[in-house]
Amino acid sequence: MTHHAPRDTPSVGSTRVDSTRVVSAGSVDVAVGTRSVPAAILALTTVPAVDYADTFTLFTDVQATPEEWARAMFGDVPTLTERLIWRGLLGLRLAPQPSPANVAGWQVRARKLGSITLEAESSIVVGNLVVLTAGGQVSLGTFLHYRRRLGTCIWSPLSVVHRRLAPGLLRDAEATIRASR
Q1: What is the C-alpha separation between 168 and 105, in angstroms, rounded?
Q2: How is domain 23-180 classified at the architecture level of CATH?
Q3: How far, in Å, are 60, 77, 153 from residue 136 at the CA level?
Q4: pLDDT tens-digit map of 101-153
Q5: What are the structural domain ranges in the chain?
Q6: How do 52-59 and 137-146 pair as beta strands?
Q7: Spatial separation of the C-alpha atoms in residues 133 and 138, rounded to whole Å
């Protein structure tokens, strides 16, 4: 089942209202697949061809830059679990040291008003993590291009775990940013 974030919906207190539903602050919408991911975030990817795409959109009153959101989600260096998945299983080449040029080892490919695009690659995949902020929401998009069939074999089971963890990642980042203000 694909869920879409409401677009251009008015805010009422801590909820957003559209003609079909009420969305509470803290709720997360999910879109999986290139046809379901909003065009605004899909346009920010730098991978040569998108083989896997998803977005998670958190409705929030927390104001922060896309880079602040990315660093709150992933930190300056990858955690042990992230290293296991990103380096160990996907073979992604990550920057070894924290730097303004990377987030958790992922290279900052683009900083635009309202978005940041991170990129990492290996011999089997090229990936982007894209953070987009606008209108009381923050979205995290994951985009992969499989360079080899092995990429699909590895990512397919990992994507199930990824989709379970991503909403919590956004909510934890929200709490981190809120606590830092």
Answers
A1: 21
A2: 2-Layer Sandwich (3.30)
A3: 5, 28, 36
A4: 999 999 999 999 999 999 999 999 999 999 999 989 999 999 999 999 999 99
A5: 23-180
A6: antiparallel
A7: 4
45: tokens are: 């990817």
Place of tokens 């990103």: 86
The pairing of strands 28-32 and 22-24 is unpaired
Task: Confirm if 137 and 63 have CB atoms less than 8 A apart.
Answer: no
pTM for the model stands at: 0.85
Which residue type, as a one-letter code, is found at position 3? H
SS3 (DSSP) at 142: strand
Q: Count how many residues are written for the chain.
A: 181
Tokens of 57: 């959109």
Q: Say which residue the tokens 């900052």 belong to.
A: 108
Residue whose token pair is 């809120």:
178
Q: Is 139 exposed, middle or buried, given 0-12, 13-18 or 19+ CB atoms closer than 10 A?
A: buried
